[in-house]
Each structure stands twice: as structure tokens, then as C-alpha cells.
Amino acid sequence: MLSNNLRGALWITLSGVVATVMSSGIKSLDGEIQSMQIAFMRCALGVLFVLPLVFGRHIRENMGLPPGETISLRSRMHLSPRWPLHVIRGLLAAAAINCGYYAISQMPLATVTVIFFTAPLFVTFLAVPFLGEQVGWRRWCATGVGFCGTLIVMGPGSGQFELPALVALGSSLLFACALVIGKKLSTTEAPSTMLLYTTCITALGSLPLALTVWITPSWEQMGFIALITFFATGRTYSDIRAYAVGEASFVAPFTYVRLIFMSLAGFFFFAEVPQPTALLGGGVIIASALYIARREAARKRALSRRPFVGPSPD
User: pTM to 2 decimals?
Assistant: First the structure.
């Protein structure tokens, strides 16, 4: 029997593998179908993957329901009183996916992956004004160091200070905003409700951009996009399972194994050699993100042991 933490680590490692396959598929279609159309078709097909989970008669506990409880079609179609936040979150996710897919199609896989790792740094900034969280000087310092790593990756001397890199950074910021809103919604909304709203709104939000570049895909291209959707859904599921069974502070470091998989895929399939600045900056970003994760875990443990939950020194 595997321990819960080891199971979580295996799930998050699997997430890195399927994310690599997904990104490789997007890059393989570069020049045949525009990234905006791929993003829409991935979101639209994602709805078909999600509906059986949301409307199925046997929803598992990791979808936020007790064993045996079911969701009726009528109750699930009921308009949430917090629907504006759902819409904003879905549109942010749609923008993040479109920006991310564009960056993947235009940049080396290792470099774009490193830039995507800045999302936890943005979450630290956004958590203060939007969630009212208190961030101490240690985490602020770690966040600042992480953004210094971003400058190493994207600085003028790195050869990466171009539009695709800025779009990748924008994707991380948009994704962080969606995460923060998701955290606010999670206090009152079931995970299945959030999943359904986000999936449908990302598809609708991606449609206008896709129509501007639309071409009729071949059956082979449709198969590629279906695989991209399947692995994108698998990545989301793997992430959920990883943090459901393992401690976040233990599981989080294994997220960065994805950089190894992406570097190998870029080298063997696209003849990409990771730039030294990407590896150096990536190391700085990863170290700072891991420190933030460990400080957050330590803060939560300390608060759970205190009889009075007041300001934390972080």
C-alpha cells in the first residue's frame, strides 16, 4: 500500500506527463491550425468530457459530494446566485488558455513552462487585496526573488523579451486571477458547479477569437485536438487527485518535474535546446515558489494549533 503523500506525488507527476503530451500536441499543430481555434475546440470538447461527471448519477467524493449523493439535472441547471463571479472566472480562464496556447506554439517548451511557473507568485500578490490574506515579509521576499528569476528568463540579454514571452506571462497572471476567484467561490459553491460553469464559459468566451481564424480541420487534425482535450482534462483530474490525497507541502515540489518532461519533449520532438537563462531563471522561480508553499503550509499548521486565530507573523 502506498502512503497518501506518495500517491499524491505520483498523481502530480502524471499531471506533468499528460501536460507535456498536451503541449506537444499543440505545438505539432502549429502552422496548420491557429492556436485560438485549438483553444476553442479544446474548450468545446471539454464540455463533452465534463458533462458526464457533473450530471452522472454516481458523483465521487472528490467532486464535493458525500458517497451516494446525486445531482439532478434540474438542480444543476439552477442559476447560481454568484453567477457574475462564475462568468468572470470563466472569461479569465478562456483568456489564460488562449494566451497559453499561443505562447506554447511560439516558444520553446522548456522556456514557456518556466514562465508558467510564475502563477503562484501572482497568487501571493492577489491574495492580499482580494482574499484579505496576510502575507509576511518572508513570503514577500520570496515572491520578489521569484520575479527576479522571471527577469533572468525574459530579460533583454536572454533573447526572450518578445511578444510570446509577454503573452505567456499574461497567461500566468490571468490564471492566477481565476484561481483567486475560484478560492472565493469555493466557500459557497460545490466543485461540480464551478467545473460546469468554468467549462461552458471558457468555450463560449473562446468562440469569437476562433471564428476570426477558423478553418475546417481534417479528421487527422480533429483526432489531434481530441487527444489534446483528453490530456488537458486528465491533467486537471490528476491535479485534483494529487492535492486531495497528499499534503500540499509534500506534493507541490513534484509539480516542477514537468520542466524535465517538457525539456525532453522539446529536445527529442522539436530539436529545442533549453537556454541557460531559462534553466537558471527557472531554478530561481521554482525555489521561491517552493519556499512560499512551505511557508503557507507551516502557517496553516501553526494557526490550527492556536486557540485564537489572529494575525500571523508568517
Answer: 0.84
